[in-house]
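Morning!

As promised:
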Amino acid sequence: MNTLNKQGRPSRPAVAQAENEGQFETFSGSKALQQTELLLFDRGDNERTGVDLPETPDIADDLGDFARKDAIGLPGLTEPEAMRHYVRLSQKNYAIDLGVYPLGSCTMKHNPRLNEKMARLPGFGDLHPLQPESTVQGALALMDQLSHWLTTLTGMPAVALSPKAGAHGELCGMLAIRAKLDADGQTKRRRVLVPDSAHGTNPATAVQCGFTVDEIPSDDTGRVDLEALKGKLGDDVAGIMLTNPNTCGLFERDIRTIADLIHEAGGYFYCDGANFNAIVGRVRPGDLGVDAMHINLHKTFSTPHGGGGPGAGPTVFSDALAPYAPVPYVVKDGDKWKLVERNEDAEGAPFGRMSAFHGQMGMFVRALSYMMSHGADGLKQASEDAVLNANYLLALLDGPMTRAFDGYCMHEALFNDNFLKDTGVETLDFAKAMIDEGYHPMTMYFPLVVHGALLIEPTESESKTSLDRFADTLLALAEAAKAGETERFKQAPVHAPLRRLDETRAARQPVLRWKPAEAEAQAAQ
Amino acid sequence: MRYLPLSDAERGEMMKTIGVSSIDEIFSDVPESARLDGLIDLPRQKSEMEVERALRKLSNMSLSAGEAPFFCGAGAYRHHVPASVDHIIQRSEFLTAYTPYQPEISQGTLQTLFEFQTQVALLTGMEVANASMYDGSTSTAEAVLMAARVTRRNKCVFAPGLHPHYAEATQMLARTTDIDITEIPSAIDADAQVIDQIDDETACVVVQTPNVFGTLVDLELIAKAAHEKGALVIAVVTEVVSLGAVKSPGEMGADIVTAEGQSIGNPLTFGGPYVGLFACREKFVRQMPGRLAGETVDADGNRGFVLTLSTREQHIRRGRATSNICTNAGLCALAWTIHMTLLGEKGLRELATLNHRRARQLAERLGKLDGVEVVTPRFFNEFALRLAKPAAGVVETLAAQNVLAGVPFSRLDPNAGLHDILLVAVTETVTDDDFDALENALKGAL
């Protein structure tokens, strides 16, 4: 569709493209359900408001020199205007509720609305984190129940609920490892082994915790190269950060051996739990020799991704690391629940506090609601369906598209770009063509160990009918690429609200906020 | 199971296509010793109605803020959030979208983030802001690391009015780095003491305003001293509604502003999820942590937005990223930006004035009680009382009478010797009846 430029005129040249012969550009710039929408700052003003407040007492302020004198410049909208602004914007977003969202490693599964309703119950949603313990027993009980589910499902003895996202959970786990090493006088152990297929957060976290990163190559089955790993062990190794199932969507067959090797070498096993959703109910990480693992509640237990957060990353610990888990945490004391908020009140030696309060309570409620709804049987079935769906797609697409590795996958199917060889179409073009077909692209160019990677994670939420249609579309696209319909891919998307965006320009000449016209004019001079 | 679309017959067909006779074959890469037989020992699936019943029971075990005269603050504030905010953030297109990595079909999220960044920059008086952090405390911790990168120095000073939990969260993130933090013991109105600690190796000072005791802090003096030594000022704001009435940190000379945004758009929710604000001077932008939305054009020259400057971030730079942060507080940032749009300049200023004057009214009433002294010299909507008895006990006594009187400072820092200090916050949600209830209950308890 057309967006208006800053002068308010439709800016796309009003020339009908060949494929749109007979179509006219609209005068308004909108196209039926796709409405153009200006920036808030192009339309609001400082006098308008959508909030009526109780009367302000007629007394003086006491702010002295602190009183704000100049205008802030914040535009406002009345409620009907604001509703329309944000509803129109919302319609420019793809969403799980709209179609297949096969982002590998991101787990875009259905978000049950019961969970939203439960998170808004006043006994969870309208509680202050620093109310007296006696007035928040229900919230503490819920955290205790969530802990029970998480430790039982993972087979790990302890959990820290407070990490606020997956990467924050990684930080929590690695800081516990660091604290344990320091407590044992193992201050030379500063090298962390990270496979080359790992999420970027793994090396970034290790470095943030004061470790150096030593990359382990993958073997030709897409798994950790065991011989290379053995060659890297030594008395300076703090541990390994390993995702399982890994980012190629494969179960690390040698995981027990890897855990034993790391432990024998005096290190600890951090498992990136991003892909726990593939194995919940069938495998407990505690049985694999894991010492710490974060759980992305927004992936495995379906708390909504919300356009990029908030996440929640509770982290489970083995007996060795449990004493170092951070404050605060909940304990049951007789028939009451207590919140241990300070190191000196804790039994172990917590490494500290991750954030101001107790973690992502709103996400805890949603995740527990999800787990209670599924139960042990439903959770297992969900993992199995996720894995079944991925393998079904792998089977349907294999051939016309080229799979990266042999064997069964877990919850996601990984392809390389060999099938696009000599077509002039690249992974990115293929993905953008999917947008025109009404699908969100899969994860592209990740993991880095596969050339032109296309990582497809359908999740358990897709029906067979939906998968069949999705596969038919991908097969048709693969065929079109091979048939030389290059323009279909290079031009894509042509049916989305916008065509391809110039990301290079965005990075070279960063415009990170709106500025008033006069300020922009001044800057230009 | 109501969330799982596959039927057993379809599962069978799909296995046939795959070429297996049971799902176990697909899981054959799992070491035998780790394969579970049967189900894990947890309850079985439940209907929507049963789950709701169980969770309602837990919810009812607590005394929610709306059920009682309520005066808690100390970093989380109970403001009224318009109903339309919660409605919009529950739209599928916002709620069930991922991080906007495909900008052509994510303009809704990207444009709102661009609007959010602009609103945050305007409000804090800074040039740029990112697309949000986990919360105010982690935002502050990241700011300290950033200041060390920018200045290539490693000393940091915390002002005595910094929220003790913010101090702890920052210490946590800094303890594995070479950053050396000096903390000054908590004090109600002594933040200018940081000036004495600044030297040529100081990367930054961290000063909260209003501080944890509610005191408005003059950043100008501190900024002048810091800048003379080449150090940066990180201003921390835990009650962003204050910025509708008081001068922005940017105006007072701050270099980085971190804030807890919860007050706007987001309910208390027992501490999270909240939304961390992070704003700074434009020249530091390439050292910023977290996601940034930026303006650009599409292939037809139309304005659009993308995530940008991602070479700072972990998914590109891995071990050399500015932070390990991946996610932002997407939906909480959206709620923030919608609420801020509904308020606008006019609404925000009115809201701030209302908060300030209501707090003044209560402080005046309570200050007249025997055994109560208002010790915060100049405040926005939160002040500290010195009580004739330990504050924690008084809070417990009042909670038993269904009055949530505030936060005893000893809860945040039991070692500061401030057991008699009670932090009392007043927002627009507090009524005259609530004032009466608190006043009467305090009279009885002291």
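Residues 1-19 of chain A have pLDDT under 50 and may be disordered.

Hope this helps with the figure draft.
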